[in-house]
Amino acid sequence: MSKTILSSSGPVTLLGGGHASAQDLTDALTIAGTLVAVDGGLVTALGAGIIPDAVVGDMDSAPPEALARVPPDRQHRVSEQQSTDFDKALRSVDAPVVIGAGFCGGRVDHQLAAFHTLLVRADRPCILLAEKEVILIAPPVLSLNTVAGDVVSLFPLLAVQGCSRGLEWPIDGLSFDPARLVGTSNRANGPIHIEIERAGMLLIVPRGYLTALVAHFVQGGARWPARAAPHISRPSPSK
């Protein structure tokens, strides 16, 4: 069970150690002014003149001189190596939605690991900033005021089905599977409405919809429940 290191009634920004432009920070912090630096993301935050509200991670990428500028009670070291620093931070932040900057671009393996965390922590909505798009696990139900021609990509991380209105190629009746069928480069005909049967579908839309997506979660829109902890059977002790 994860310890909550920061709780907020509003959206929170997570800043990772990957590439994050000045525009990324501006866009994220304008909407979600509480900032959590994820390990090496501390260097980026300090470079922008910002002392984060918290720093989370194993701290192997946060230089001692950078940590020295952050009050000790804002530093939260999680030393286990079974999860990424992004996972450590996301599971430790209690907020209606998180904006993640510094997790896309750069190394492909880091991006894949970030998408894995989005799936594993689907009950903690997180919207990742890419250069031109935003990426998130599609919630159970979502309506978005897209305009005709907007690219709406759906990429399954698990076998999953859904239904839609407003897409040029409706998804009703399709069985998405990462090894069989994906839904990239679909397009909106106007406003869209999407319903997904279970957490497992990446939704990728133009970056201009960041504010609307944040509002969906802040205003109590549909989200996924926490995954049940796996049941582990243990043999009875010998008599």
Looking at this protein, list some descriptive labels:
239 residues; alpha/beta; Rossmann fold; Jelly Rolls; twelve-stranded mixed sheet; two-stranded parallel ribbon; 21% helix; TPK_catalytic; ATP binding; TPK; EC 2.7.6.2
Taken in chain order, the helices and strands follow as: EEHEHEHEHEEHEEEEEEEH
How helical, in percent, are the residues?
A: 10-25%
CATH homologous superfamily assignment of the largest domain:
Thiamin pyrophosphokinase, catalytic domain
* Number of DSSP strand runs: 14
Protein name: Thiamine diphosphokinase
InterPro entries: Thi_PPkinase (IPR006282), TPK (IPR053149), TPK_B1-bd_sf (IPR036371), TPK_catalytic (IPR007371), TPK_catalytic_sf (IPR036759)
Region (Disordered): 62-83
GO molecular function: ATP binding; kinase activity; thiamine diphosphokinase activity
What does this structure look like?
The chain is α/β, with parallel strands linked by helices. The protein folds into two domains: 10-131, Thiamin pyrophosphokinase, catalytic domain (Rossmann fold), CATH 3.40.50.10240; 132-205, Jelly Rolls (Sandwich), CATH 2.60.120.320. Helices cover 21% and strands 29% of the residues. It has six helices and 14 strands. The chain has helices spanning 22-31, 41-47, 64-67, 85-90, 108-120, 210-218, and strands at 6-7, 12-15, 34-38, 54-57, 75-77, 93-94, 98-101, 126-129, 133-137, 141-144, 151-156, 162-167, 183-196, 201-206. Strands 2, 3, 4, 5, 7, 8, 9, 10, 11, 12, 13 and 14 form a twelve-stranded mixed β-sheet that branches. Strand 7 (98-101), helix 5 and strand 8 (126-129) form a beta-alpha-beta unit. Residues 62-83 are annotated as: Disordered. It is an enzyme of class 2 (transferase). InterPro entries: Thi_PPkinase, TPK, TPK_B1-bd_sf, TPK_catalytic, TPK_catalytic_sf. Residues 32-119 form the Thiamin pyrophosphokinase catalytic domain. One of its GO terms (biological process) is thiamine metabolic process.
